[in-house]
């Protein structure tokens, strides 16, 4: 007991020191991103907001799909992943659907027969078909097009260019299914040994009854031999898929003959039920016909609908066909939100494109509405992010192909390298109009709040603060230091 009394005076001091140590450690680690370790600034050594972890989920001779994994945040799973799709000329991503919403952005094509110096001016084209409100539509896409494909909608993509390698950037937003895959799960309509078709899992007699066809006729659906998810649409692959298209058409003709037998009231009800089945089966026929025979499936399906009940799939929104929301001598920016392209509202995502001239800066700012994901589509530069506790989170050099993200409310800025412009494509986690709060510039919150209260917050006189804040007369996109000096 005496020993306890002698040492008890030191216990509060020891306990207090432990609390301080824990607090300091917590403050240092509070804003660390799970899975990232290291230290320092600049380059990629310490870049917690660079999405460095990627994996190739599809790779064939016809192209590849690479996905950059989003970061979990504050115990929540990542809101989105970023995908890069590359397709060789005259190739097809076979019809399939996935358990995630997609926002596609078509980049410029790369001409395989021109030197790299000429490729800045070239374009590529793609044909995409998908299911929209129980009907099939297809569209020709050009560089700058933005298109939403909802989770569960079967779709295909064709690189229709004969000389261009196609490039697509996509936001991939998982919808929270109970499936095992932590990225997304594809379900292939067509397929082979690699990427098997969902039809292959059904009993052949089940398919025969569903298609009202013989087992031999529907066997083409279960014995597919396509060479992966991305295939060249010539040679053996095209021949086989033509046969698949023919088999489905034959099944449809047999179903039409059966429908003619329904004559009484009960038969009419039965006919209507079969009509619903016919619509579902016709979806596959429409997809295959559109790919290989070039038939205007969209118009045919519209013609079959009752007058006054059309279903028009949303067209793609081209980001290059409109004037920038902001432009000055140092760059420009465009935002596409739910007001510009209503399908984005369903995914609650906006798309933006920023172009910074050499050495210029997107002024330090805060996005109070959404988290941002950025892809450097051309050029190089620096991305700088600040933690809420006032410490530097990241100052990373970025180049074409790098992907970064900035949590909601975190201050950040982007600076183009001095040797050339930098262009950034991005996605934000809100479909509403973005209203960034700029920390520097003519429209900054410092100018708006200028007064003795703000000066007191910095511990300086108002005149002293005003002298610093008023020096920058540009807004949003700021000139380089050399331009400011001039």
Automatic annotation (TrEMBL):
Residues 1-26 form the signal peptide. It comes from the Eukaryota. Residues 49-219, 317-466 form the Cupin type-1 domain. Keywords: Signal. Residues 294-320 are annotated as: Disordered. This is Cupin type-1 domain-containing protein. It comes from Dendrobium chrysotoxum.
